[in-house]
Structures are given as C-alpha cells and as structure tokens.
Amino acid sequence: MSLFSARQHLADATSVLVITGAGISAESGIPTFRGEGGLWKGFQAQDLATPQAFARDPKLVWEWYSWRRQICNEATPNAGHEALVHLEGRIERFLLTTQNVDGLHPRAGSRKLIEIHGCIDDARCTETGRVFPVEDGIWQDGVLLHPDGTQARPHILWFGENYWDGTLDVAHGFARKVDVCLVVGTSGMVYPPAALAVFAQRSGATLIEVNPRAGQVTPHADIWLQGPSGEVLPEIVG
Ligand code: OAD
Question: Distance, CA 138 to ligand 1 centroid (Å)?
Fold first, then answer.
C-alpha cells in the first residue's frame, strides 16, 4: 500500500474530485450491488429498477425501495464518510460525486456533493417531474402520490435512463482541472462514473483508488489502496 504517497498527494492538493460507490457504505451495513451478498444477486434489476418495471408493478417497486429506505435510514455514516467531510473542509476546490442513493454523505455533513443516481428519501412526480421528500407524499394502495394526488416514483436513476440534465456536465467540467481524483468503493461497472475518473486522470490528476478488491478502475489507478474505506480514508486524510 502506498498510504504515505496518497497522504502526500492529498496534503499537496488544492483541488480534489471524489467519486464514491456502494463500498463506502458497506461498513455502515448497507449492502453493495455486486459481489457476495450484493443486491443484484438476490434481485433482478429489470424487475425493480427500470421504468418498465414501474409501469408493470408500481407497488412492487415501491415496496422494494421502501425496504431499502428503511435500511438506509437506520444506518449511520462511518469513518470513511466522515473523513471525506474533513477533506472537503480543507481543500479549496472540492467536489464529491456519489453513485449512492443512501443519503449517508449528506447526513455525515458533505455539502459540495452531487448525488448522480438520486436519493432514496426523495420521490418524483411522474407527470411534472417535481422532486419532493417521500415523507411528504401520500400512500395509496402501496403506491406513493404527490401531496396533490398525482402519481410519484422513486427519485432514482434507473437502468435504461439518461443522466439528468447537467449532473454529469458539472462533474466533467470540474474533473478537467483537479490535482487528485479519489475513487472509493465502486466496481466501476457503471460506465460514466468510471469514465469520469479516467477523464480526470488524462486531464492531469493523480488517480487514487480505495477498494479492498480490484475493479474496472484499478488498472488505471496511479495508487491503489487495497482495504476498506472506513479504515483507509481516515489514514490518508490528515
Ligand atoms: P458495486 O456493488 O458494483 O461495487 C461495490 C464496490 O465496493 C466493489 O468494488 C467492492 O469491492 C467495494 N467494497 C466493498 N466493501 C468495501 C469497503 N468496506 N470499502 C471500500 N470498498 C468496498 O457498487 P457501485 O460500484 O456503487 O446504480 O455500483 C454502481 C451502480 O450500479 C449503483 O449506483 C447502482 C448499481 O446498479 C443504480 O442504481 C443506478
């Protein structure tokens, strides 16, 4: 492990882009998607996380997201989330781009944050696109409605859907000029976030990865810190 080198790069940096995935919340008890015990081992994504699945059976889809929302709401941020809050506080130009919908980054205190796949605590009106907190909605036969009675869906990016306008543009614009790109707890199987890391590196950033196992980003990483983020991040964020 090049802990020392990673720590040094972060100590010298004035601009940092962080990209996180499900692995950063694993130590908070939230299941990841792939690998042993992953959500996509026990469930079929096409039955639950697509517009077609929602059109077919909105009640089933809401049931699944309500189950996940409960797990997320009962979890608490871990030392990895907290280390990133600390990093944000001392880096001049900072952006955290997360694929996670669990809300643990904002609950830990991250503010310069884009949740590119949405948030499990939010719903969206299917007609007007208005985003609102799930807890403000009205449940009717297992399906959530906007307070004005129109149908709502989870505010989550589903398979087959395009990223929302602007989200990736902001991240790309930022990635163009950063000293360090820190990638934490993602398999890199979902393409745009992994491509963002490589784009940042090609634009001049040092690419540091934190993950106990190798994934799609690892062959590109300048430094791979092979370990759990709850242990590694506090070590490198001085
Ligand atoms: P994955 O489940 O694909 O990958 C989780 C990653 O976390 C793996 O690389 C693990 O090795 C790593 N990991 C496990 N424990 C860890 C720990 N303690 N510390 C650090 N890393 C650890 O999850 P994502 O890459 O986030 O999309 O998946 C990307 C997207 O695919 C998700 O946002 C979701 C899913 O389909 C949508 O729902 C749109």
Answer: 32
